[in-house]
Write a structure and sequence with these properties.
The chain has 430 residues and is α/β, with parallel strands linked by helices. Helices cover 40% and strands 17% of the residues. It has two domains: 3-17 and 266-426, glycerate kinase, domain 1, CATH 3.40.1480; 22-132 and 167-209 and 246-263, Glycerate kinase, MOFRL-like N-terminal domain (Rossmann fold), CATH 3.40.50. It has 16 helices and twelve strands. The longest helix has 18 residues, at 3-20. The chain starts with a helix and ends with a strand. The relative contact order is 0.13.
Length: 430
């Protein structure tokens, strides 16, 4: 089985994963199940990198039943719609346009009554695209706090706890603004575990965290006195009970709120596995929750490929190993690349010289880091064609390494985002 054929098959498997995460179909399928005829008004709001596609699907299904709608979307993803507005704003860095759009969304949902339906469409990037600072806090102060948290080593759950308590839209607060209307939130998950409270910082999901926890996080990382005074004062007032908490799981408002994950990495991987089996591979879907340092995860995947080739375990060739999730890259150099390209480069070093093995990794949104590539692929002969792989890896320069070989995967924007898909193929050695 030639590596050229294996490369084509890996790309076919990846495309099946992306197709399964198509937000148009996922949103349309769920909206058709709703009895919208029993509501006086139907409002559609939301934010995210897949917002334009999700909004188009909502308009296709609901058409004139939409009373009004507004979604904050990325600059490169506008579409013309008849019954709602797509508001272009900054991503990944929130900007004033995002704040303006978030304020208008808040006003729209606040106008909804008990006989109305509010549909909330959320996808990856919504945290940045739906910035609505709490009263007395500026966008710049929120951004400065986030930078301090990132530099201090705070994890994503800690950062989200802070975000939710210095915002007026996150942590279930958009649902609270919409009460007593019926709220249907459709979520395209870009987070490990598909927790609605984490996707887009959970604008329509209950929030179990507290103001007191937010203060403890700032103290833990030694930055309480470094954040803006207005931000610190808000958290302190909330911890004393002067300000209302974010809505908790037992809050009665959630009796009229439903959060549904319509697309996820797990769904995408299941479709990839079906395609791999159609192509004749013995297929193992190991996990949709892979996280950790990219190059270490790559070495583990390469070790599995070597074991399959050597012993036929855990699957006899032709075999396909699938994983998903989202790894992290520790920057050591000044190169250009992304986590998927770095994964493939690190794996390429480990499989050098082995025949009939292809390693493929790409982001389902069509982008990987600050590049125009979704990912890359490599085989046992990759280092034979370009031996200086370790130097490029040391510089985090995977993009230039694979660009010179023609091994980058360029799909363009896919208008979805359900993290990454990794495909390891081991062919029948002849």
């Amino acid at each position: 089985m030639s590596t050229v054929r294996l490369r084509r098959q890996a790309l076919s498997i990846f495309r099946a994963a992306v197709a399964a995460a198509n937000p148009d179909d996922a949103v349309a399928r769920h909206l058709r199940r709703l009895d919208v005829g029993r509501f006086r008004n139907v409002y559609v709001v939301g934010a995210g990198k897949a917002g334009a596609s999700m909004a188009a699907a909502a308009e296709r299904v609901l058409g004139r039943r939409i009373t009004a709608g507004l979604l904050n979307v990325k600059e490169d993803l506008p579409r013309k719609l008849r019954h709602m507005e797509l508001h272009v704003c900054g991503h990944p860095v929130p900007d004033a346009r995002g704040v303006d759009g978030a304020q208008r969304i808040a006003q729209l949902v606040e106008s909804a009554g008990r006989e109305d339906l509010v549909i909330v469409l959320i996808s990856g990037g919504a945290s940045a695209l739906l910035p609505l600072p709490a009263p007395g806090i500026t966008l710049e102060e929120k951004q400065a706090a986030t930078r301090l948290l990132l530099a201090s080593g705070a994890n994503i759950h800690e950062i989200n706890t802070i975000r939710k308590h210095i915002s007026s839209s996150k942590g279930g607060q958009l649902a609270r603004l919409a009460a007593p209307a019926r709220v249907e939130a459709l979520l395209l998950s870009d987070v490990i575990g598909d927790d609605p409270a984490v996707i887009g910082s959970g604008p329509a999901a209950p929030d179990a965290s507290t103001f007191a926890e937010a203060l403890r996080i700032l103290e833990k990382h030694g930055i309480l006195e470094r954040v803006a005074a207005s931000l610190r004062e808000r958290l302190q007032q909330g911890a004393r009970g002067v300000l209302p908490e974010t809505p908790k799981p037992a809050d009665p408002l959630f009796a009229r709120v439903r959060n549904t994950v319509v697309g996820s990495n797990r769904i995408a991987l299941s479709a990839a596995a079906r395609r791999a089996r159609e192509l004749g591979f013995r297929t193992l879907l190991l996990s949709s929750q892979i996280q950790g340092e990219t190059r270490e995860i790559a070495r583990m995947h390469a070790a599995i490929a070597r074991e399959i080739a050597a012993s036929g375990r855990p699957a006899r060739p032709p075999a396909c190993i699938l994983t998903g999730g989202e790894t992290t890259v520790t920057l050591r150099g000044d190169g250009l690349g992304g986590r998927n390209q770095e994964f493939v480069l690190a794996a390429a070093i480990e499989i050098a010289g082995l025949p009939d093995i292809v390693v493929f990794s790409a982001g389902t949104d069509g982008t990987d880091g600050p590049t125009d590539a979704a990912g890359a692929f490599a085989d046992g002969d990759t280092l034979g064609r370009k031996p200086d792989a370790q130097g490029f890896l040391d510089r985090n320069d995977s993009y230039r390494y694979f660009d010179a070989l023609g091994n980058l995967v360029r799909t363009g924007p896919t208008h979805t985002n359900v993290m990454d898909v990794r495909v390891i193929l081991v062919g029948s050695q002849q």
